[in-house]
Structures are given as structure tokens and as C-alpha cells.
């Protein structure tokens, strides 16, 4: 179920960075606008992906004292 978020955000930022730049009207700043759209999509997607992955698979788990571990061992048999 959590992977639907990954798919949804990936598709959203793929559209923003890969499809929308093709529909920018011709003008003197077209290249700059296209570059900004692609760069914004890449940066926002990477920021979101790093945050999502760190919540899905944290590098640091809860810090438990030995007393707490002993109580858990006794109570959770």
C-alpha cells in the first residue's frame, strides 16, 4: 500500500519534468522556463524520495536500555 505513494509521486514529477516543458509557448525565455521545470521536478522528487525512504527504512532504530529489554523479554513470552 505504501508503494502507491511512490508510484503516484513518481508519475506526478515525471509529468512535471518530462511532459509539461514541451507545452511551454515559444518566446525569449522558453529555454529558461523549461530548464526550471525540469530542475524543479528533479530536486523536489529527490527530496521527497529521500524523506520517504528514510521513513520507510530508518537507519537508526529505537534506543532501548537493558532494563527495558529484560522487561520485554519477560512480558512478551
Automatic annotation (TrEMBL):
Its main location: membrane. It is a multi-pass membrane protein. The chain crosses the membrane at residues 6-24, 36-54. InterPro entries: ATPase_V0-cplx_e1/e2_su, ATPase_V0-cplx_e1/e2_su_met. One of its GO terms (molecular function) is proton-transporting ATPase activity, rotational mechanism. Keywords: Hydrogen ion transport, Ion transport, Membrane, Transmembrane, Transmembrane helix, Transport. It is found in: Endomembrane system. One of its GO terms (cellular component) is proton-transporting V-type ATPase, V0 domain. The keyword Protein transport does not apply. One of its GO terms (biological process) is transmembrane transport. It holds the Pfam family ATP_synt_H. Belongs to the V-ATPase e1/e2 subunit family. This is V-type proton ATPase subunit. The lineage of its organism: Eukaryota, Metazoa, Spiralia, Lophotrochozoa, Annelida.
